[in-house]
Design brief:
Helix content: 40-55%
Structural class: alpha+beta
Number of strands: 4
Strand content: 5-15%
Radius of gyration: 19 Å
Strand order of the largest sheet: 1-4-2-3
Length: about 210
Amino acid sequence: MNKKELLQEVKAYRERKKSLINYLSIRTENELISRRSTYQFTISSYNYEKCRVRHTEGAGIYLFEAEFSNIYKSWELSYAGSEKDKMISWFSLLKQLWGSVEFSPLLYLNRAKEHYSYINEFNRYKNGFIPLYLGKSKNVFERIQTHYDGFYDGTYGLRLKERIGFRDLTLQVSSSALWELGADDLYPLVSEVEKELRRKMNPISGKQ
């Protein structure tokens, strides 16, 4: 194979890879938003077995979401500031609810703003679930469990049991299996899918 042929092969490989990532990203996004494999819970009602039957123990992507509507509506009734400062005031409360927990991801207000609107019907904090954290794992269920119970294995986690401000929230976690990419040499492609979905979904915590 000469240099020209090699460059053509590399170009073809990149095009095939791009097409594959695009296909898997769309498939994964559709499965997450359709909530085909979803477990809904509160921090006090989390059940290991009910969660386990919903999620793969193989490779895949998972998405935690939180419903803030009750807290938001209660806060809104007592809010006495200007409309201009309303979003800033809400995000200040959101950071308080998130709190500061060791070995856990930060809350990013630049992403949180993507889900806020001054028009009520488009304000997802008032209506529906907010993407909280998007992640990947070779064992999705096991990783979800560590996010809940806070077991520290050298990676950051949500440590939900320790988040006092989230105890009254309804949470849910959805997942999409990527069994095709479970092998060690293919698993890095899961990161590519994760990156694409993070760009689209704007989870308010986790990697930038």
